[in-house]
Write a structure and sequence with these properties.
It is a single chain. Helices cover 46% and strands 12% of the residues. The chain is an alpha/beta fold and 462 residues long. The chain starts with 5 loop residues before the first strand and ends in a 9-residue tail after the last helix. The relative contact order is 0.08. The chain binds adenosine-5'-triphosphate and magnesium ion.
């Protein structure tokens, strides 16, 4: 069972530690004990506790001082004041400073437990509301995935069929194709919609930190582990966990994740208690995992566990018929956001947008439209609001070109231009693809795909 929550008791009296410790552990909470304000503050790195019971009268740093500092570290901290005498005044002062409630010593056990349950429920509801508002703001519902092409309709069917199940889902697609959007839609259309959707960015953390992030840790598990802490798996209980770019998961964590998926249970780092949570896993990748398996960089057994339902999201260049509705969708969205009355794009602009290959996929198209809306002074977006690279060699300016524009179709011109910009960027960075990708504003994986597609000989750049 996942615990009911971690409660931090800050009180200088050992007898209170003992009484409250027993009472709360018996009720299924975990407790953390501190005798002084200083000790307590050292344990707060920002989060980790579900509730704090704070004594107002303590030697050295008094409760009010501790409260101020705790609120500074974590403004959302849920604090209940324990006050020894009928000094209701200072308790009220504490509530004005952000304490949730207070309770007088001596207290009845039932009364205390009720106050605690209510406080935790209240906080959960608040967080829930915030999240719902957030979801609504971001409008990540199904209807926000725009697409009418055959390939996208297949994707919609797969989302609809798989969302209500508990099956693990693997999303494959190039950068910017909408993997995160689809992952959210799956969560939103499942019976988990009112529970958390948690994103794990496996590439951004070193292995040991990632593991304590995912599975939590117990006090003393490693230097700096000053208290028990829940991991993302516990936080995502009843909800979904989204492993973004799963290919970057290091071998140790791959092994751990596999075990969790097989046994559906795990332990906090350094812990001895087995925890069970109900979490649906969605993973995304923009790299070919089967290729990584060949290179011994990704576990085959984990791949088969993840690959229960695979949804391949095609690149935009393979569903160009979606470009006009996507363009109109983004024009509507960004003109509203920028309080402008822009009706659409000119036929000429639409033609250019339909020819271009969109290496950065929908994200690139979205950014381009946003930019055009911001720049445009007219009711219609014309080629003047397009970035120079799209129009410079399309005969819209007089810049001399190494290509003879007359002899090439518009499409060939765009492709030739794309290829030459890539070569230029690679030359500038002496063949370092990562830097070249930055220059071009695309992901390295995207650049790599394009280098292959255009058969650019990278050795010539170094
Ligand atoms: N079909 C679509 N309709 C409308 N907007 C879309 C669609 N697909 C993607 N987008 C938008 O494009 C942007 C990129 O999408 P998203 O972040 O989901 O891509 P991704 O595949 O996760 O990319 P990366 O691999 O780079 O993380 C987002 O702003 C998203 O809202
Ligand atoms: Mg993403």
């Amino acid at each position: 069972m996942a615990s009911k929550g971690i409660i931090h008791i800050i009180d200088d009296e050992p007898i209170i530690h003992e009484i409250l410790g027993q009472l709360l552990t018996g009720e299924g909470y975990e407790v953390e004990l501190s005798s002084t304000g200083k000790e307590a503050l050292e344990k707060h790195s920002g989060d980790g506790f579900d509730l704090i019971l704070l004594d107002l009268l303590m030697p050295e740093m008094d409760g009010i001082e501790v409260l101020k500092k705790l609120k500074k570290i974590d403004p959302q901290a849920l604090i209940i004041i324990i006050t020894a005498y009928a000094s209701v005044e200072s308790a009220i002062a504490a509530m004005k400073m952000g304490a949730y409630d207070y309770i007088q010593k001596p207290f009845k056990h039932d009364e205390l437990l009720l106050t605690i349950t209510r406080a935790i429920e209240h906080k959960k509801l608040q967080e829930e509301n915030l999240r719902l508002r957030d979801e609504i703001d971001k409008k990540f519902s199904f209807k926000n995935i725009i697409g009418n092409s055959e390939v996208m309709r297949n994707v919609f069917d797969l989302i609809k069929a798989s969302a209500p199940t508990r099956s693990t889902i693997l999303l494959e697609g190039e950068s910017g194709t909408g993997k995160e959007l689809v992952a959210r839609a799956i969560h939103q259309n499942s019976d988990r919609a009112n529970s958390p959707f948690i994103i794990v960015n496996s590439g951004s953390l070193p292995p040991d930190l990632l593991e304590s992030h995912l599975f939590g840790h117990v006090k003393g598990a490693f230097t700096g582990a000053t208290s028990n802490k829940k991991g993302l798996f516990e936080a995502a209980d009843k909800g979904s966990i989204f492993f973004d770019e799963i290919s970057t998961l290091n071998p140790e964590t791959q092994a751990k994740l596999l075990r969790v998926m097989q046994d559906r249970e795990f332990m906090r780092l350094g812990g001895t208690k087995t925890l069970r949570v109900d979490v649906r896993i969605i993973a995304a990748t923009n790299t070919d995992l089967e290729e990584l398996i060949q290179q011994n960089k990704f576990r085959e057994d984990l791949y088969y566990r993840l690959n229960v339902i695979k949804i391949e999201i095609p690149p935009l260049r393979e569903r160009k018929e979606d470009i006009p509705i996507l363009v109109n969708h983004f024009v509507g969205m960004y003109s509203k956001e920028n309080k402008k009355k822009i009706e659409g794009v000119s036929d000429e602009v639409m033609e250019i947008l339909e020819i271009y290959d969109w290496p950065g996929n929908i994200r690139e198209l979205e950014n381009l439209i946003e930019r055009a809306i911001v720049l445009s002074k007219l009711k219609l977006i014309t080629h003047e609001s397009l970035p120079p690279f799209l129009i410079s060699r399309l005969g819209k300016d007089n810049e001399s070109s190494s290509l003879s524009n007359d002899q090439l179709t518009l499409k060939e011109q765009v492709l030739a231009y794309q290829k030459s910009s890539i070569i230029e960027a690679l030359k500038k960075t002496k063949g370092v693809q990562k830097e070249a990708a930055q220059l071009l504003g695309v992901k390295s994986t995207t650049l790599n795909e394009m280098i292959k597609r255009f058969r650019i000989d990278i050795k010539n750049m170094v």
